[in-house]
Amino acid sequence: MKKSPLFSLAVFILLLAIGLLISVTFGGNTVSTYRFDRSRAYTDVEMQLSFGPRTPGSQAHQKTINYILEQAQNAGWQVELHQTQRMGHPITNVIAKRPNPNMKQIIIGAHFDSRFYSDQDSNPANYNQPVPGANDGASGVAVLLELSRSLPPNLPFEIWLVFFDAEDQGNIPGWDWILGSRAFVEEIPINPAAVVIVDMIGDADLNIYLERNSNPQLASQIWETARNLGYEQYFIPQYKYSILDDHTPFLEKGYPAVDVIDFDYPYWHTTQDTLDKVSAESLGIVGETIHAWLTTYD
Ligand SMILES: [Zn+2]
C-alpha cells in the first residue's frame, strides 16, 4: 500500500495530539504536585482535633507525634525524634529533614502541644479544661505538614521542618513556655541561615502583624512575598505585638528568626479554640506565602 499524503498528515496530527495530551497531563501533574493544597492542610487540623487536646503526656500527644512522623515520612522526608527532658518532663521534638550537605540550612518550626488549661476563658469553670488548640497548635503543624508534601525537591539549601513540643505550658506550676524549642537549640547542632516559626495562623479572621522581636530583614522578605501574592491585607506590614515564642531561643543564639503569628485571636487559651474558628483559606494564605518564600530563597 502506498501512503497517501493525506494519510501521513492524519498520522502527524494524531501524533501531535497524543504529544500534546502527554505534555498537558505531565505539566498538570507537575503544577499540582508542588502546589500548597489548603484543603489537605485543613484535613491535618481536623485529624489533630480528632485525637483530642495534645497536652504533654496524653495519648493524643503521642498520636500527634506518630501522625507527624507518618505524614512526613510518606512525603519522603528523613524523620527523627529529639527526646530529652526539661523540668522533669519528657520532651519530644519531631524533626523532618531534607539533607543537603554544605548548603545553607533553613528551619521552619511550629509547636504541636496544646495547653493544659484554658485560663483565658471567660467562664472560670473552664479554667481547668485543656485548650482544644485548633488554631494554637494544630494550624502551624498543618502548614508544616502540607509544606512537606508540596515543596519541590532539590531546593538549593538544607531544610528542616521542626515540630516543637511543650511550647504552650507557661504560667503553670512546674512548667515554662517554649521548653521544646529551648531544648532543641541547646542540644541539636544547627547553624540556620533563617528560622521561620508559624503559630496561630489558621484563624478564619486572619491578621498577621509584624512581631517586634523578629529579625526585620527576614520578616520583610516574608511580608513582601505575601504582598506579591496579593495577601497584604492578611500580612499587615505594621508592628503590633512582642511575643515570646519558639523563635526566641534562636534569636538568643544570634540566628535570624521570625515569628509569623496572628495574636488577634479572641479564643486564645480558651475552650473556644475549636475547628470552626480555623479556615482552609487562612492556612492556604500562610502556607502559600512560606512556600513561595522558600522556592525563591537563595
Ligand atoms: Zn498558646
Termini separation: 60 Å
Helix fraction, binned, reads: 40-55%
- Percent of residues in beta strands: 15-25%
Give the overall silhouette. Answer: globular
Bound heterogens, unique: zinc ion
Q: What is the second-level CATH architecture?
A: 3-Layer(aba) Sandwich
Number of domains: 1
* Biggest sheet layout: 6 strands, mixed
CATH class: Alpha Beta
The CATH homologous superfamily is named Zn peptidases
CATH fold call: Aminopeptidase
Low-confidence stretches: 22-31
Tally the helices: what do you get?
8
Coarse structural class: alpha/beta
- Strand neighbour order, sheet with most strands: 1-2-4-3-5-8
Mean pLDDT: 93
H/E series: HHHEEEHEHEEHEHEH
Name some characteristics of this structure.
298 residues; alpha/beta; Aminopeptidase; 6-stranded mixed β-sheet; two-stranded parallel ribbon; binds zinc ion
